[in-house]
Automatic annotation (TrEMBL):
Is involved in the conjugation of reduced glutathione to a wide number of exogenous and endogenous hydrophobic electrophiles. This is Glutathione S-transferase. PANTHER family: GLUTATHIONE S-TRANSFERASE U13-RELATED, GLUTATHIONE S-TRANSFERASE, GST, SUPERFAMILY, GST DOMAIN CONTAINING. It catalyses: RX + glutathione = an S-substituted glutathione + a halide anion + H(+). Its EC number is 2.5.1.18. Coiled coil: none annotated. Keywords: Cytoplasm, Detoxification, Transferase. InterPro entries: Glutathione-S-Trfase_C-like (IPR010987), Glutathione-S-Trfase_C_sf (IPR036282), GST_C_Tau (IPR045074), Omega/Tau-like (IPR045073). It is found in: Cytoplasm, Cytosol.
């Protein structure tokens, strides 16, 4: 992933958009598969680059952590609306732990909305009950 700094924007957000915009079950399944592929690559990247530490770059939050954090809100909303879990212990354990650490970090916590707040905002914005 280091060779393509735009992977998150080009692939992951495109996959998120495809999940949201899918019109039928076949399209939803294909888009969900692409998002799962993106998350698998991010999981692999996290495992390699974190070297067992808390963040992509090691002990402190870096550029890749900030870039990946932008996916947390949209994925949370998709999970809440669809009932499908994309971040799962069996497939993305590192990303799950990373997301918890990132959200709880003292530099992030005061500014990062909770999952519940993001979902409530999306429900209001898209008029979903």
């Amino acid at each position: 992933m280091a060779q393509n700094d735009t992977y998150i924007d080009d692939k992951c957000f495109a996959a998120v958009d495809a999940v949201v915009g899918a019109k039928d079950d076949e399209g939803k399944m294909a888009a969900a598969g692409k998002l799962m592929e993106c998350l698998a690559i991010l999981e692999e990247t996290f495992q390699k680059s974190s070297k067992g530490l808390g963040f992509f770059g090691g002990e402190t939050i870096g550029y890749l952590d900030i870039a990946c954090s932008a996916l947390l809100g949209p994925i949370s909303v998709i999970e809440a609306f669809s009932g499908v879990k994309f971040l799962r212990q069996e497939t993305t354990p590192g990303l799950i732990q990373w997301a918890e650490r990132f959200r709880a970090h003292e530099a992030v916590k005061p500014y990062m909305p909770t999952v519940e707040e993001v979902v409530a905002f999306a429900k209001q914005k898209f008029n979903v009950q």
